[in-house]
Amino acid sequence: MIFNFSSSKTLVALAVASSVMLAGCSATANTSSTQQSALPASKVAAVVNTPADIGSQKITLEQAMADPDWMGNQPENAYWASDSATIIYAQKEQGNTLRNLFSQSVTSQTAEQVALNKLHTVGSNKAVYSKNKTMAAYTFKGNVFVENLKTGELKQITATSANESKPQFLNNGDLVYRQGNVFFKVDLKTGLTSELANLKLTDEPKGIEEPSTYIAKEQHKLIKFVALQQKNKKDQQARNEQINEQNDSIANTAYYLGDGNKVAEAQLSPNGDALLVVVQKQTDWRGDGDIMPNYITNDATIEPKKARRRVADAKEETSKLVYINLTNKEQTSLSFNTLPGFDEDVLAAVKKENYARDGKTYKSKRAPRGINLIMDWGFEQSPIVWNDDGSQVAIMLEAWDNKDRWLATVDFKNNKLVSQHRLHDDAWIAYAFNDFGWLHNSNTLYYLSEESGYSQLYKKPVNGSAAALTQGQFEVSNLTLTSDNSAIYYKANVEHPGLYEIYRVNPQTGKSEQVTDLNGMTDYTLSPDETKLLLKHSTITMPNELYVADAQANAKATRLTHTVSDEFLAKKLTAPKIVAVPSSHTEQPIYAKVYYPADYVEGEVGKNRKAVIFNHGAGYLQNSHMGFSVYFREFMFHSLLADEGYIVMDMDYRASKGYGRDWRTAIYRQMGTPETQDLADGVKWMAQNANVDTKAVGTYGGSYGGFMTFMALFTAPELFQSGAALRPVTDWAHYNTGYTANILNHPDVDPIAYERSSPIYYAEGLNKRLLINAPMVDDNVFFQDSVRLVQRLIELEKQNFETAIFPVEPHGFVQPSSWLDEYRRIYKLFKETL
């Protein structure tokens, strides 16, 4: 099924039968009741509008791979000023890497550059506001500033060489900020700064110790001078303790968290009377042998750059929760043993399979699991959140084995955690969709959960049952609660998996309503006064620009910026069509972009088209959406190929983002297998629907896409005639822990999954042309990955591969000359083999 979106044609109504949607998933949770959302639960597609092809000047490879300045420099890191009438954003200078800051009124089409000596005056995207919304606080270059929103007065609170951070207004109007692990409070009326808490990563001092050995005790008996010195020390210690207890002018705020530890997170209550602290053992992020040689240096030497640890070397970690009562100076450790499943052997079946392969028998037993703060790569919040009056605190935790996520509160009376929500997944908990918080002036939580198979929004009173605020086969993210609890704004792909708009739901009634209708990829920021939305919006053929809209249903958006260059607009670029490729392995189709040549006619006969499939990187990334892709160079390269008669396809293979939990976890313990099956379905679809000769199809991709190129050429060698693997993973045991351990568990537990999923074990299957493009200072996928595979191919006596190295490039190429060299090689490979 092709979804042909074009601004030059009438809108095309998309219809996808409900039978092609995902089946239920194995994720479980304790949600027990639901509320019906106003949005249709099974709505998959609707009327949308995306651009047609643009420009008339043929794009060249040299232009496509040039420094992207020629395309225009889009607004970056946009945020609201405190007046809710001005936006601030950065913009890259032409010809260098410097950024300038601009200020623009929402009623103007022009922006003014912020002078360097005024950069501290325009707020921050991390500004915080007082409870009555009369004051704003933020940091600039490590110093704290406070703005009076009524008078406009800006006051600098600190001017130090230290790095002050994380300003916070207390309920009484005082300001708190951090300097490392020390919390300071400022009385904004008097200007007095006082120390609230000093978190010391040492053991508590033992004080004056009494003699313990025989000879020491005798020394104190026999020598009066020694005994007197001991008495004087004890007297002085006692006096110091009396002064600290009886004299309020002295800061007595030290809390000892243990030698060899680090503070992973600490959040102060809004009343300033309590802290919840997460403590971990201080461990190095690398081993002595984790280095990466850099051969091109300023002084012509070889620099041994430090590199991260590999997942194969990772050791289980667990955290310690410490509750500190700042009023009575008591600190208490909170155990994880009240969390359901804290000691379950959730990997018993996996361990049994691996033991059996080695001829051993695994006996399951319960044991405390490593538990830490949730790791969400998109988090803009803390995983610890207090409610408004400081009577409750919530913390989101995740098991080291990646199978459980807990949202817990603290029973302060009994000093224990109370589980409010457990999300278990037999595969892994997503490192997205973990937003949560408290409804204002209440003890009711709201949070995202994939328990239905899709990320949806729920609410739960601390002592009540959970209720769904949204329902459907779409993904909810990016939550913002209004100050009066009337709405939670969110981003979702309700109408189509690749179409993202802004919605809002009333948390009391569960009624949702659509806010924007821009057709593409849209993100938002609610203004401080909550009357407007700052929108970042792009389409398939146009990069991000800024818009503003009223914060209401069916809002009309006004465009604020016009930064795309005339040169880019003039280039002939092909707008891909959105295709739903039937899957041979799932009920849900595989969404893909297809670039058609200008002379292509639907249903044409007598032509045998050649084709290329591009494999996006990151694994959990969505590329077949209706916004401007992060792969903008590839977009232009694919337009160039289409202009030369190729059919080009970008597939959102299984594991891609945007399609629900089951799609995400299809690769659990078998990376590369479902994706290659999906590529085969893509080739089949092109043969049946685009006149493609199956003996003239190539594939390429970078990072995860490079890994997929290997797996396709090694395990399904008849599928493609050639492939190019860029910055590719060849052995998952050498990749990082945060990403890999989710999908494949840890190598010491599940070596079967690593061997099943790593291309280096399948290299003997290569019988088609292969290009390996490897950057040498890649601190993400190490150059060693390519080196080890090349040696394996040599030992297998393979003759149809070649390797190109890029000495100065990291994982994401920087130099235009490197981009051009890389894509010239890819272009040449396809020209020679297809």
Automatic annotation (TrEMBL):
- The Dipeptidylpeptidase IV N-terminal domain is annotated at 384-543
Q: Which stretch is the leader sequence?
A: 1-29
The name this protein goes by in its record: Prolyl oligopeptidase family serine peptidase
Q: Is the keyword DNA repair in the record? A: no
Q: Which organism is it from?
A: Pseudoalteromonas distincta
Q: Which residues form a coiled coil?
A: 226-253
The UniProt entry, under PANTHER family, shows: DIPEPTIDYL PEPTIDASE 9 (PTHR11731:SF193), PROTEASE FAMILY S9B,C DIPEPTIDYL-PEPTIDASE IV-RELATED (PTHR11731)
SUPFAM superfamilies associated with the record: alpha/beta-Hydrolases (SSF53474), DPP6 N-terminal domain-like (SSF82171)
**Please, which domain of life does this record's source organism belong to?**
Bacteria
Q: Name one Pfam family in it.
A: Peptidase_S9
Tell me where in this chain the Peptidase S9 prolyl oligopeptidase catalytic domain is found: 639-834
- Keyword set for this entry? Coiled coil, Signal
